[in-house]
Amino acid sequence: MNYSKTSYRKSIGTPSYPTTTTKIIRKSRVSSVGSNYGSPLHFKDGVVSSLSSKGATDIKCTREKEKKEMQDLNERFANYIEKVRFLETENKALKEALKKQKRDFNIEPMKAMYQTEIDELKKQLLTTTDENATLKARIATLEEEMEGLNGQIRHLKDVNEEQQNTIENLNEEISRRMSECEMLRRKVQELEKQLSDWKTRHSHLDSQLQALRIELQEETASRLAESTRAQSLEDELNFLKDIYETEIKEYKALLAKDNSFPDMREYWTSEMGSCIKEISQEYESQLEALASSLEARYESQISEIRMGTSKGAVELTQLTDENRRLKMQKSELEDRIRDLETQLAQLTGQLRSVTMELETTINDLDHEKEAHRNDVDRLQLELEGLMKELQDLMDAKLSMELEIAAYRKLLEGEEHRISHSSMVSSIGGFQTSSEEALSNAIMQRSTAFKSSMSAEGSIANMGAARITVHRSSSGPVAVVEIETNGQYISLEETGARKIGRPTNLKGWTLERQMEQGGKLLSHKFTDDVIFTGKIPIKVWGSKYSSSASKNDIVSHINEWGSATAVSKTVLKDENNMEKAVFIIKSISDRN
Fold this sequence. Notes:
The protein is α+β, with helices and mostly antiparallel strands. Among the domains are: 60-104; 179-377; 464-591, Lamin Tail domain (Immunoglobulin-like). The chain contains four helices and nine strands; from the N terminus they run H-H-H-H-E-E-E-E-E-E-E-E-E. It has a five-stranded antiparallel β-sheet. Strands 2-3-6-7 form a four-stranded mixed β-sheet, with no helix packed on it. Strand 4 and strand 5 form a beta hairpin. The chain is rod-shaped.
């Protein structure tokens, strides 16, 4: 805005005052001096005249002094009146200049507009404050609920740990029982193998015994056959003997009937007797040889059979005893196997029931974990939504505060500039040296204020601008605040970090880039910077190091610049990846 400069001229001269005449009227005083007792005093001649002349001289001096003082006071009063009239004239000229300035530059609409915006911003600020308080109360409630849920989760974790310990104990018991079952199974297999060996041996002995029985039956059958044959031969021999005796009897009868040949009969009888004797001897010898051979054969076979039978009987007895022992051992093993199978079935049933109970418990725990995880995720989403809303509200609040500060600075600067420019305007067409120095200082300050307001993205040349703040964080740390005068930048740990692991900023970099290629302010964290809880860490400029606390950091940078300046603040990790951004923008409302 261009302001016109108006010069006021005034002819300065000696003011005219009305002439005043001071007239001193002397009166002769007659003093009567009386004594304390009422009688008059009498002086000598000349004493009263000397006293009166001395009093007149004193009065004259006093009057001269008073006259001089009155002249001084009159001059001072005249100067005061002249100064008052000069100031009245100056005030009149200033009023006329102010009226002209008001006519030329009407600030009332701007004040009304700014006042309206300030009222709206105050209303929004109050609304935001109420919403912030509501959200804080809700956040506190959610935090209490989260504490309760965390307590439930801890309780469930303890129960889960107890269940895990029980499961581990049961698994150990099951593994021990399974190892015992495996050992018993191996023992049973070994016993079954021994039993199969004994069965094989028994079957082998049984087969040998069966073979011996078959041989015995064959020998018995052959013996019976030989005895039958001997009986048949004896029967045949008796039959032949009977036949021969019958024939002999017939021949004897024939010979008895025929007596014509006595010599032949005797001869035949002798011959026949000799033949029969020879035949009988030969038959008897053959029969005796056959009988002796048969008896020897039978005796040898019977002895062999008896020896084999006795040996087989001994072996059979041994085999029978062994078989009986094996049968008893087998029955014992079968009973033990049945007991072990029963115990194994019981253990298997217990294992199955424990496994089913374990699966049921695991399923219940999985369902509870899933439900709690869903609740935690839902609460986390709600908390993130609330945190985002709170972040947006904080950003809006910060933007409003920055806009209000910018508007306040603008109004103060405009009022300051107008008032001071009006005060230092020359009324008489000239300025004193002090007035010129004051005017130059005010103009320089006004120019600096305009340049700073232009650099901060505020309003200039009757335009309006809105300052917005955008914050984002993709890591465990966020940039939450930039001090209004650039004294510090505040960093705060978010809830994105891993549980139980505090964030260390060693090797990270904090940068602030001003608008349009301005100065880049960069600070690198070379030492360990660890967050403790939710306490923010402030990175102070070296100019304000005296205000830093023990948990804060003092940077080598002098100051960070004004918070209303259009800029971009970035927090990078050791890999030069952006983890947090704080952007201040100025959006113009002029079309």
